[in-house]
Amino acid sequence: MAQFLTLLLRNRLAAAGGVLLTMVVLLALAVPVLPLQAPNVTDTANRFLTPLAEGHLLGTDHLGRDLLSRLLWGTRLSLAVGFAAAIFAAFFGAAIGIIAGYFGGRTDNLIMRAVDMLMAFPYILLALAIVAALGPGLGNALIAVAAVNVPFFARNIRGITVGLAHKEFVDAARLAGLGHTRIILTEILPNVLPVIVIAMSTTIGWMILETAGLSFLGLGSQPPQADLGSMLGEARSALITNPHTSVVPGAMILIIVMGINLLGDGVRDALDPRLRSGALTRPRPTTRVDRNGPVPEAERDGAILSLQNLHTQFHVKNRVYKAVGGVSLKVKPGECLGVIGESGSGKSVTALSIMGLVASPPGVITGGAVRYRGEDLVGAPYEALRRLRGDRVAYIFQDPLATLHPLYKVGDQLAEAIRVHHPIPKAQAWARAIALLKQVRIPNPESRAGSYPHEMSGGMRQRVGIAMALANDPDVIIADEPTTALDVTVQAQILSLLDDLRRDRGLAIVFITHDFGVVAQLCDRVAVMYAGRIVETGPTQAVLATPAHPYSARLIACVPELGAGRRRLEAIPGLPPAVDRLEAGCAFAPRCLKTRAECRAGEIALKGPANSPDTDREVRCLYPETAAVSERDMP
Ligand code: ADP
Ligand code: MG
């Protein structure tokens, strides 16, 4: 709620509208206690007094009635009727829309055709017909205005509900045995409520105008009772001779409707869930960079992609989430580097930081460098990054259904990925798409290229994802848990496919996973990540055989071995730390069995074993597991 108000007030026009409207509403509420003259007492001797006349601040009308008093009483009435009509319309419209959208099928058809029939009449004509049938009067005008607005709400809410009715959380509620009423009230309604409020805030002004329109025609409030519309109607005959009698109610209508519309637009912007997380700012095309340390020097070590002391944080309000806290990694052409760690350890954020794909806000790269062929990509201009994205450096994500566009054929999507970077004729791109599908071993690639993503199985879609990553023959592929959603046989096929590709094409692969089995199968080297930092790196075989960091050792102990007999699987107790309040020292200390005071004292460096020939290994631990890697003797 507080967040909603801050967002609303940041929008100056909406705030102005809000202030205007609040003043009018307060004034209307205070009318009975204000020292006003009676609004309906006629005094024909003092007809058409001009504003500022004695005793009549705004003058008098054609019957000598005090205009100020009539204006305020009329405003009160018009507001009340407008709001009441909006609430009725929203209530019945939303109820109809939710029922139609939730139950669907014949119910939906029947209800929506009736709504369509109502919508086929022009608004004001329908309202006139309703009032004509019910007889003139403010109550009937209210009913008419509410009724003609019900279809608008019903259509709007039905659309949202149809989208929600088949979402997983609604299915889950059904599985839990909840009845329709409970589901509608607890699952659907909270999700459509913001839409109802938005629709209301943008239509109240319109409904006040419609009510005024009916009163203007003499079908709403009946004399001598004043509302803004009837005041205008009565002043019409004196429009030329005594314009102030029309200007006064007209100006009030203008103020009210403008205030409501400005405020309504602000409410819509602040409540729209799509605008909320981004705090009304468009996400940037690249991650924001705010490096406060020096940029690390380039190293000549044959690596095609290297991360040097990379820091990526999320700044949310006054919290700082250190998702990546100084990560250094490198891959050479033809090499596969595994990055492994529990969920939440910062693997995906590391991967996305490479091409500046972390959403900003809230993401910020606060330090380090990402070098592709020696050139720093952190803070590189958007165009430079865009040329590399998908062309030289390609990504494969975990969920192929989320990466593929549901409405285009996979062949077209592959062709598009090629043509973004290489403007070749469409037919040629299509032929290349088929060749790519063949390369990732999709059967019948010619006909499969014409399939939509939903017509394929999960494994096949992931192959399309890989084909898309390969489309422009990249140098580096960053695969973020590409096989996590697949079953074991498909996973094995995809791993061997990636392995062949890197041998044939000299691809460098950064393979992110939480599965040591996958790392063992595919990767030359492995980096173990914990709480946003690398805690151990080394050749895969060496790390698997003799893990040095207690965390790696325990991760490996969690992997069941087939055919190795019965072994106790040691789960790691506790959870990874929250990255917005990391304490000094080793982040794993709270879960480690060997923690001592020094472990929590301060920064622990990632360094190689001092007295070991194994120079390729590094570990961030004071008391590593294996004697071969330990620097000092374990007591
Ligand atoms: P994983 O290793 O499972 O891929 P991630 O890289 O996705 O983990 O996330 C790393 C950390 O960053 C997590 O602790 C997560 O809570 C945090 N994080 C990710 N996105 C955001 C965000 N938009 N705002 C705040 N924290 C985030
Ligand atoms: Mg992830």
From TrEMBL:
The chain crosses the membrane at residues 12-34, 77-103, 115-135, 188-209, 246-264. InterPro entries: AAA+_ATPase, ABC_Ni/Peptide_Import, ABC_transporter-like_ATP-bd, ABC_transporter-like_CS, MetI-like, MetI-like_sf, Oligopep_ABC_C, P-loop_NTPase. It is a peripheral membrane protein; Multi-pass membrane protein. SUPFAM superfamilies: MetI-like (SSF161098), P-loop containing nucleoside triphosphate hydrolases (SSF52540). Signal peptide: none annotated. Keywords: ATP-binding, Cell membrane, Membrane, Nucleotide-binding, Transmembrane, Transmembrane helix, Transport. The keyword Membrane applies. It is found in: Cell inner membrane; Cell membrane. One of its GO terms (biological process) is peptide transport. It comes from the Bacteria. The keyword Coiled coil does not apply. Its main location: membrane. GO terms for cellular component: plasma membrane. GO terms for molecular function: ATP binding; ATP hydrolysis activity. Belongs to the ABC transporter superfamily. This is Vitamin B12 import ATP-binding protein BtuD. It comes from Pseudooceanicola algae.
